[in-house]
Design goal:
Length: 302
């Protein structure tokens, strides 16, 4: 037959932050109904209730005396239960328990070089464990790893490289290598700027992906397709004529989804923190169904 599930819930959130530490918690309660229409017979309904609790925190775990080396952590545990009451007829009492554990660690080291430049190697580890009275035997585990190095010079040039991998339930895995070369203009926004970001493999290098809402949807259970390891390239070059105006061009090459654009940016930042941004761009998307577009985007910050 068919069923319809409705639930209205409230989830107050509490947060506390001080310096480099942060803690949060959320409790939830909801009520609703389950309505079942069998293929033969009368429609049946029953009351449903839900309770949940989540607690998490993030912050610096340790740091050397000179502040050059730092270990940070982030963790969260959540539990929830949904109960369906016995309606005395077709629907029997049932309960579903769901729990989730997420943990990530990041270590960074900053080394000062001659001329004022800095070199920063870093490494991240993340793990997530989902358990529920449901599909996939009720359990799903994901582990993510990342290692990288970044060099920042006083001229505004940044060079960065990362390798990463993600391993989930079954035979599913991801891997990738990506880099970044970026030149920022001076403080007045004038002069040449560019970004070149090549990559090979999967598109993300963030352990933060494990913190997405649904691991089952973000991480499939099948092996990667061969196309997933295709190289990609994102590049942007611009020139600040003044601190407000910057014409630029950009290009993205990724499998069969290539994109080319030319545009101009205009921005004004007031002394009291209010900022205005406009971006006019014309672009060509060389996909299976090629399209051309002119976009005008605006943003106000205060």
């Amino acid at each position: 037959g068919e069923y319809q599930f409705e639930l209205v819930s409230v989830h107050p959130y509490f947060g506390w932050r001080e310096d480099a530490a942060e803690m949060w918690a959320s409790i939830g309660y909801g009520e609703g109904s389950l309505e079942v229409t069998p293929t033969s017979g009368a429609k049946q309904d029953s009351d449903v209730s839900m309770q949940s609790l989540a607690v998490g925190g993030s912050g610096r775990i340790t740091q050397t005396a000179d502040g050059a080396t730092e270990l940070r952590g982030k963790g969260e545990v959540s539990i929830a239960r949904i109960e369906v009451e016995d309606n005395g007829a077709f629907i029997a009492a049932a309960g579903i328990d769901v729990s989730q554990l997420k943990l990530s660690l990041e270590a960074t080291h900053t080394r000062k070089l001659r001329g004022g430049a800095s070199l920063q190697p870093s490494a991240e580890f993340g793990i997530r464990y989902d358990s529920s009275d449901g599909e996939n035997d009720g359990k799903n585990t994901g582990i993510a790893l990342r290692a990288g190095v970044k060099r920042v010079s006083t001229s505004g040039l940044t060079i960065e490289g990362n390798v990463h991998g993600l391993f989930a339930r079954g035979d599913y895995k991801e891997w990738g290598v990506d880099g970044l070369v970026r030149l920022n203009p001076g403080r007045d926004g004038q002069g040449l700027s560019f970004t070149v970001a090549p990559g090979l493999g999967d598109t993300t290098s963030e352990v933060e992906r494990l913190w997405q809402q649904d691991l089952r949807h973000s991480v499939p259970t099948s092996a990667n397709d061969a196309d997933d390891i295709a190289p990609r390239l994102r590049a942007t070059v611009g020139y600040g004529l003044t601190h407000r105006w910057q014409p630029y061009g950009e290009m993205t090459l990724a499998n069969d989804n290539n994109r080319y654009g030319l545009g101009v940016r205009w921005q004004v930042k007031q002394a009291h923190g209010v900022g205005f941004h406009l971006n006019l761009i014309g672009e060509h998307r060389a996909t299976a169904n090629a399209t051309n577009a002119i976009l005008l985007q605006g943003k106000v910050e205060f």
